[in-house]
Amino acid sequence: MKLSVSARAVAAGGIATVMLLTGGAVADAASAPPRPAAAPDLPLAGVKAHLTQLQSIATANGGNRAHGRAGYKASIDYVKAKLDAAGFTTTVQQFTASSRTGYNLIADWPGGDTSQVVMAGSHLDSVSSGPGINDNGSGSAAVLETALAVSRAQYKPTKHLRFAWWGAEELGLVGSRYYVNRLATGDRSRISGYLNFDMIGSPNPGYFVYDDDPAIEKTFKEYFTGLGVPTEIETEGDGRSDHAPFKSAGVPVGGLFTGASRAKTAAQAAKWGGTAGQAFDRCYHSSCDTTANINDTALDRNSDAVAYAVWELSE
Known about the structure:
Blueprint: H1 7-22, H2 26-31, H3 44-59, H4 70-85, E1 89-97, E2 100-109, E3 113-123, H5 133-153, E4 159-166, H6 174-181, H7 185-189, E5 191-197, E6 208-209, H8 214-227, E7 232-233, H9 243-248, E8 253-257, H10 266-272, H11 296-314
Parallel strand pairs: 3-4, 3-5, 5-8, 6-7
Antiparallel strand pairs: 1-2, 2-4, 6-8
EC number: 3.4.11.24
GO molecular function: aminopeptidase activity; metal ion binding; metalloexopeptidase activity
Cofactor: Zn(2+)
């Protein structure tokens, strides 16, 4: 899916055109710093390939990727291997919850101003009753493919980029809370924004944007406006995912969501399609949350929105 040109890019292009037409602008244009390259159109096939791998991991490990289970550790190992090969500096953070060992995976892209850190994250664990492909393989796969796109582009942002995959979210945001609570005050203040992606491929999708930090919210809305896709403010998962510990610590947060167990209204079905009166995800926290439980259009749009926001907010 092709990304819309941002309002800033359009404005910049218009100004440059006027300057060139009025003369004397060639030297000014040549001396101006180049605008960073636009975010790439993420390959849907790449995102879905990660989901296939997470499904295979769950199938080989008792049908789930839950905290403290072999399927979760194998999921961490899969993501880490991809990032290590792509040139990221990875750190595995270990913690204990419910008498089981859990893991967070943090990946830093070399370069950028470390006093201004843009983070994008998702929880990688499933519930014990299913493989967790929409919840939250979808967010995890999109964040991973965005990180790999950063590597492929050899992107050199002004700000420092950090990606994260959290453990034990399903037990009460344990992994992300552990990470935030162990950050020094100065390190927390260096995070200019945390972007959270928890369920972005629901089979009967809505298009919901967090209304926490205004600048982050505006960035996501700008992207969807460019597609002609209306959005609504996210309320179903408010405070129930890994952005909450960051928000409590004073970090600006934002994110995307396509809906869980709430039913889609008739008005929502009229503007987004899908089935009114049916849950956004009928397989929420169930064994049927498999690779068959994904809406490709929603996954594609939201994955591209992840990349768009990472590029826009880190330039």
